[in-house]
Write a structure and sequence with these properties.
Number of strands of chain A: 5
Structural class of chain A: alpha/beta
CATH class of chain A: Alpha Beta
CATH topology of chain A: Rossmann fold
Order of helices and strands of chain A: EHEHEHEHHEHH
Number of helices of chain A: 7
Strand content of chain A: 5-15%
Radius of gyration of chain A: 17 Å
Largest interface: A-B, 43 and 43 residues
Helix content of chain A: 25-40%
Oligomer: homodimer
Strand order of the largest sheet of chain A: 3-2-1-4-5
Chain lengths: 230, 230
């Protein structure tokens, strides 16, 4: 590893959810100056963006940016397309809340920022355990993205260093994620996971994401600070 | 190749320039219904977007979309950052007009749309001959992106087909591109290549891009329809 490869900067993708908050805490614990990036991509629940900003502040991010992204123009997901209903029941296979090529798009924009910053590490809270229905949350995908990224940048092609896509949550259960984040001081009350929160940001408690989250707190033996409605 | 892999639809990235116009003509000549995509990413010369729409219409695209993209938020290029001057002289190595991770970002968004459309082919006018300073215009990069894309989508991971990144211009000289597009009926007067056009969209004639374009028309023996200023 050459001297130029050492950088204290990392780009961390932040959604406002539990997983990315824990990922940020892990990157901070490794000593990185964390440049966090959230996307305003037409998601139905705007509270995500406020949660991302609150998490970045609580965990001492060096800088937090929000990028507007017109994903609605390509449609295809219940999270961005108002014509598709969000299901109440967990289904099998790939959920209707899948956003086409979402991690590829988010990682690509993080990659551009990493190059500008001179960062060699991009952190994403991808997890293959609870969300195995998402192809872009698998290690095979992350490895392929990393290989592509190292062909894409002038700094990597010119041999100055190696870009790493970091996925510290990849093999962790939801309970293990919560236990780790709890130990690192993550304030999970600031995070939001619900696919269908009410106007005050309170969680529905019945969607896939709420069920996984609640079960994770229970299994980890950590009090669940999530505000649920009625 | 399974029956489900056959699709007449393709996504074609369209910049308003000469290369992507020729790429669209080639995709049309292969019989594809072409869904063209341009990006409003804060580029200085807004005439690009009008040119892309005019090219899509002239060459019979099935549909043309423009996606807003807040690339200015990550900075780093003379094309989007007003603090960086566009050079008059061709330089060596990677030009200052390089946009960080640009093709990765553009291809990722095209990938999302391809999945929604059910298209297996994405066309991009990447060329390794004239623009060898851009790492994301090399065949090694395109191959790595294609491998990543086939790990990213539920349809490819579930084995329904194979996503292809098509680069018909990759090994062609500028003259060969112009000759091929001329034969396919591309109206190059509708395209724009200049890094620094005037308010009426007339080309400067001295930037890297203008020089390559003019030399290409001369070498191909095709009249240059480019409007140059004074």
């Amino acid at each position: 590893m050459s001297a130029s490869e050492v950088s204290r900067k990392a780009v961390v993708l932040l959604s406002g959810g539990l997983d990315s908050a824990t990922t940020l805490a892990m990157a901070r614990a490794e000593g990185f100056d964390c440049h966090t990036l959230a996307f305003d991509y037409g998601q139905r629940h705007r509270g995500e963006l406020a949660a991302a900003a609150a998490v970045a502040e609580q965990l001492g991010a060096a800088e937090h940016r929000v990028m507007r992204l017109d994903l609605g123009a390509i449609g295809g997901s219940a999270l961005t397309d108002p014509e598709i209903e969000v299901p109440d029941e967990p289904g099998r296979g790939i959920p209707v809340t899948y956003v086409p090529a979402r991690n590829t798009i988010f990682l690509s924009l993080a990659l551009g920022w990493a190059e500008v910053l001179g960062a060699w590490d991009i952190f994403i809270g991808a997890n293959a355990v609870d969300y195995s229905g998402y192809p872009d949350c698998r290690p095979e995908y992350i490895g392929a993205f990393e290989r592509m990224a190292n062909q894409a940048l002038k700094v990597t092609v010119e041999g100055e260093g190696h870009l790493r896509i970091r996925t510290p949550l990849m093999e962790l259960s939801k309970a293990a994620i919560i236990a780790a984040g709890h130990d690192l001081g993550v304030d999970y009350a600031r995070t939001t996971s619900c696919y269908d929160p009410d106007e005050d940001g309170r969680a529905c408690g019945v969607c896939d994401s709420c069920r996984l989250r609640a079960a994770g707190f229970a299994e980890a033996g950590v009090p669940d600070p999530t505000p649920y409605r009625g």
